[in-house]
Write a structure and sequence with these properties.
single chain, alpha+beta, 8-stranded mixed beta sheet, two-stranded antiparallel sheet, globular, Glyoxalase_1_CS, Glyas_Fos-R_dOase_dom, metal-binding
Length: 155
């Protein structure tokens, strides 16, 4: 479903974005972050067969860790040891968020990309197709990266 704005541009209709699929954070110290999210906050870390096949090598090398929140949202931690905050005072800006990902039905993905382009929103990366599905990355008005993604279409 699509809606039109007063300017005539099409937009995604309420309900097209189904849920937050995952949140990806860049972290400077992977071990400290794993301890924080897994031990202190009590989130379940995905291990063994729980790790998506596309991330097994990155998880095994210690570059990525995946946690699941109580509502089923995946929290991806990406190790960036050289990462410096934009400002040493974390109250001034978000400093570690990488992007927010919204899930959409596979049959609506191409239309979502068209809506982004029609509204002259610069695409940062994509559309891409991976074993985990399709995605497109773009920025919100404050420069925070947003992803719209879908699962692979059933064959």
């Amino acid at each position: 479903m699509l809606s039109n704005t007063q300017s005539g541009n099409s937009v995604l209709a309420p309900g097209n974005l189904r849920k937050v699929h995952h949140i990806a954070l860049n972290v400077k110290d992977m071990q400290a972050s794993r301890h924080f999210y897994g031990t202190i906050l009590g989130l379940h870390e995905l291990t063994g067969d729980e790790v998506p096949a596309t991330l097994v090598e990155l998880v095994a090398s210690g570059k990525v860790a995946n946690f699941i929140t109580p509502d089923g949202t995946i929290l991806d931690l990406f190790g960036e040891p050289e990462l410096l905050p934009p400002d040493p005072n974390p109250e001034k800006t978000f400093t570690r968020a990488y992007h927010l990902a919204f899930d959409i039905e596979p049959e609506l993905f191409d239309r979502a990309v068209a809506v982004i382009r029609e509204n002259k929103i610069a695409i940062a990366h994509g559309p891409v197709t991976r074993p985990t599905g399709r995605g497109v990355y773009f920025y919100d008005p404050d420069g925070f990266m947003i992803e719209i993604r879908c699962d692979p279409e059933a064959s």
